[in-house]
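Fold it.
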Amino acid sequence: MTAPRSPHRDDVLIAVAGFFGGLVLYALGLDTRSGHGVDPRWLLLLPLAVMSGAELLRRSMPNTALAIGCAALLADQFTDGNVATIAMFTDLVYAAVLYGTPAAARRIPAVSMVATAAVTVTALLVFQDAQAVLLGLVFAVVTVAPAWTGVSVRTHRDAAEAARLRAEQTALLAEIDRTQAVTAERARMARELHDMVANHLSAIAIHSTAALSLDDPKTSRDALGVIRENSVDGLAEMRRLIGLLRDSGGGTAPAAAPTLAGVDALLAQAGTNGASSGLEFRLEDAGEAGLALPAPVELAAYRIIQESLTNALKHASPGGVRVALAQREGTLTVEVTSPYGDRPGPRAPGSGAGLVGMRERVALLGGQFESGPVAGGNAGGDGGRIWRVRAELPVDEGNGRA
């Protein structure tokens, strides 16, 4: 059970001001019904004190404060009466609507209107005088007016709170969108960096290992040539990527994205890098001639082939590496197979990031991706087992999610 909250500072000021204001009116003899209340006259101070105490609860316990106020107002009717008591009661009605529960905020204005009507009708029946309507008007000023004032203030307060919450929610959603955009861009940059540089670094690692392990001048010279070629190409790719990252949108034109037209060059480079490992590369292109592909699809297919060739250079056994492209029924199929088994000679370490990057590229385009060892001897590996990478990419023009 939680301890009751202490009175708000403003509530204390209202209670003190109301009580001392009532004392001043009492001292001056300014009563609401002078000479019509019970004796002695000082009894009017009791409802005043009770009403002042109820003001201390106007914010923390508004319904309880209003109930106490109603009892104090009723008791005040049997004394000479004090204007301060009535004024504080109107404040309790206002506070009960403003700070009370939503149900109380709906119920109090309706009850005050019904009570006003009942008082007016009763006064007319008892006094048989049209001036009794004035009593109803006074009662309305004391109950209906503060109740509906509380409704108006509460409505504006709730509207302001709702607007504040919407603004906070909008800011939160904007921050989430920004974070997701930054994360997606970082993932895209990581894929591009890996796909562009890993091929060259893998070839450098393999041939440098061969040059160190074989005491053959010709082999070492050929390996150094391959290392130099891949170092220059890798450095150029790194400079291009750094230029793209530093470019703020003006000054230099963005570099063109690679296309499937460059697959032949990829295979030629892979053939040079993999000759010492006994790897041969060939392309089987069954695509429809002249049919344009969406840029995101073409870039994804190129990068998947590039990374698959890099993995073949790292891990494949001697034999044939086949790259197959086929396009039918709105789908571009990319399949790369390589010998799978024990591999003699040096091999470069792998981190698994390449497979993750290929899977992400295909997922962004809404395609399907699979990789792993399968049975089949068309790649020329020992034991008839091959490693296959297969991606199916939708080629509809509306696909721009890459």
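The chain has eleven helices and five strands.
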